[in-house]
Design brief:
By secondary structure, this protein is an all-alpha fold. Helix content is about 70%, strand content about 0%.
């Protein structure tokens, strides 16, 4: 394990025992060293949307704990690649750390919810993707204030497994990853539920405006940073972030509408 990570974990009293039921200490340390760059990558992708006062070191420490958890709990019999499983655990640990900080001011959460409701209302009326000016009018704010609200909402506009899980109808799982693991078993109903969610998300992405659809593709599929996407599209990093926020709001609303989940 990298010395910096060990130091951080010792400092917080979180250094786990080297003994492990599934992995010996040497194999465990080799895996941590091999996948430590993955922790750094995920922290960088999450951190770019967070306020400056959020410490990247805290995200890295949480990510290392998530990686260790993945190493201990990984079951090759599930048929899932370790890298995919580790990414889920690392990201989840970082999001848990952010939630524990309660770093998003209530006013920002409130404005994010107002944006979500305004987009839902306008798009229901127009039967097409809402334009910026239309949403601003629905919010009764000028266009400059609207863009400021988008900028502030960027931190809460992260599509997480838990958020998608929240809109799954009558589902006992907290996120699609749990459903996915179960769906690999013998329950055909759960397999169909997962397939349905994938179809709904894919169709919702297809309905996004072209620029937003490109940002989603480059960010989530090509795993580029906002800065790299801006260079490709000829936009500022701030503009790309706004497109990402709008895309996430539309996707959330599409899922909620499909599964008849109330948007309070």
């Amino acid at each position: 394990m990298p010395q910096l990570a060990i130091g951080k974990l010792k400092r917080y009293g979180q250094l786990p025992p080297l003994e492990c039921k599934k992995k010996d200490s040497v194999e465990r340390e080799q895996l941590v060293t091999q996948y430590a760059p993955l922790v750094k990558t995920i922290a960088g992708r999450l951190g770019i949307k967070l306020p400056k006062h959020i410490s990247r070191e805290d995200l890295l420490s949480a990510g290392i704990m998530g990686l260790l958890d993945a190493i201990d709990k990984y079951d090759v019999g599930k048929g899932v690649e370790f890298k995919s499983y580790a990414e889920f655990r690392i990201r989840g640990a970082m999001l848990d750390e952010l939630r524990s900080m309660d770093w998003v001011p209530r006013s920002v959460r409130r404005n994010a919810k107002r944006l979500e409701q305004a987009y839902a209302k306008v798009e229901k009326q127009k039967m097409r993707p809402a334009e910026d000016e239309e949403v601003a009018a629905e919010l009764d704010v000028d266009i400059k204030t609207f863009y400021q609200m988008l900028d502030e909402a960027r931190g809460v506009a992260i599509i997480s497994e838990e958020e998608i899980g929240n809109v799954l109808p009558k589902c006992e799982y907290s996120n699609p990853w749990q459903m996915n693991n179960s769906a690999r078993g013998t329950n055909p109903s759960e397999s169909l539920d997962l397939a349905e969610v994938k179809i709904v998300i894919a169709e919702a992405i297809d309905r996004l405006p072209k620029n937003e659809r490109m940002v989603v593709a480059l960010y989530y599929y090509e795993e580029l940073t906002m800065k790299e996407i801006g260079q490709i599209m000829g936009y500022t990093e701030s503009r790309v972030s706004q497109l990402h926020t709008k895309a996430v709001i539309r996707l959330r609303n599409s899922l909620k509408h499909y599964f008849d989940v109330e948007n309070p």
